[in-house]
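Figure 6 in text form: structure in, sequence out.
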């Protein structure tokens, strides 16, 4: 009797201590609510939060401005992790292009890559835009400040010898606003570096007759040839109403990044939550459907791997 009483008491102490152990909050930077980054962050957090009882991590993934905003927030210590295009991961780590002024972010760490992101141009069908060059003199939503698309658009314009002044209007609306702007005839075209299918483009094509515009030519081929983080990309025909044929463009990868200042154990648990539940993760968005573990830990990563991530990949025998 005495023995059992003792056991019960021990049980009470054990569960009491588990419930009061300190929870650690982690924040993941994403993108606009109608994009895919938001789903990446929300999906990772959902899997992490299933295990809070074991690891005491509580994960949130608010909407943000996108790649550049996420990298800057991680550098400032305002966010722990975030999603960023592979081109901006490269430039932030090396202190090049848009990050030249700030200098190299030496502590930037890669965790894994996610889906491919074609540089996407979609135009109103009545705007007379069949090629990228037709954008000259038109009203174009070039992307919100802090987004990867605005930064990559600047690279494309630079390569072509254009500036924002070559457009009648260069608006900087967020993804959540751009489809309505296209539908309301406030802009002729929108630029979005994004995985497919996504809510923003779906909203656009269901609001107005719109067509995918190919992005090709000598300058684009040179960008692909000269930069390891760019590749030729195709937006499959039939994915959206109004674009039955494949659309040729170039693209990057969405990648998941963090800082060397974030604890190994935290990153390890986040990575474990994703890859221990990989089939579940892949079902959370159609853009994740064809992901493979192998590609996710090799492609698109230019910053060093975070030690916590490397620990998990070694445990699984992947490296
Ligand atoms: N590639 C975009 C960016 O870097 C975000 C796309 C998305 O939200 O899915 O800002």
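Output sequence:
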């Amino acid at each position: 009797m005495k023995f059992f009483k003792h056991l019960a008491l021990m049980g009470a102490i054990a569960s009491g201590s588990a419930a009061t152990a300190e929870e650690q909050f982690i924040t993941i930077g994403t993108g606009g609510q109608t994009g895919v980054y938001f789903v990446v962050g929300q999906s990772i957090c959902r899997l992490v939060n299933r295990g809070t009882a074991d690891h005491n991590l509580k994960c949130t993934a608010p909407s943000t401005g996108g790649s550049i905003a996420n990298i800057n927030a991680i550098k400032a210590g305002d966010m722990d992790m975030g999603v960023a295009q592979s081109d901006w991961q490269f430039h932030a780590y090396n202190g090049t292009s848009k990050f030249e002024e700030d200098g190299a972010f030496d502590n930037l760490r890669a965790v894994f890559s996610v889906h491919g992101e074609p540089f996407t141009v979609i135009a109103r069908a009545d705007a007379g835009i069949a090629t990228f060059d037709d954008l000259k003199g038109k009203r174009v939503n070039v992307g919100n400040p802090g987004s990867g698309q605005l930064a990559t658009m600047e690279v494309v314009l630079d390569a072509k010898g254009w500036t924002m002044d070559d457009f009648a209007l260069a608006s900087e609306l967020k993804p959540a606003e751009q489809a309505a702007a296209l539908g309301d005839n406030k802009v002729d075209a929108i630029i979005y570096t994004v995985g497919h299918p996504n809510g923003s483009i779906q909203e656009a094509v269901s609001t107005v007759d719109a067509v995918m515009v190919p992005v090709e030519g000598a300058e684009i081929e040179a960008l692909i040839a000269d930069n390891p983080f760019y590749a030729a990309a195709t937006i499959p025909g039939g994915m959206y109403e109004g674009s039955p044929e494949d659309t040729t463009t170039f693209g990057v990868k969405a990648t998941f990044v963090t800082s060397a200042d974030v604890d190994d154990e935290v990153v390890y648990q986040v990575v474990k939550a994703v890859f221990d539940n990989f089939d579940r993760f892949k079902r959370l968005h159609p853009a994740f459907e064809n992901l493979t573990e192998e590609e996710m830990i090799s492609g698109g990563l230019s910053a060093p791997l975070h030690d916590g991530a490397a620990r998990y990949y070694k445990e699984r025998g992947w490296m």
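Caption detail: The first strand starts at residue 24 and ends at 29.
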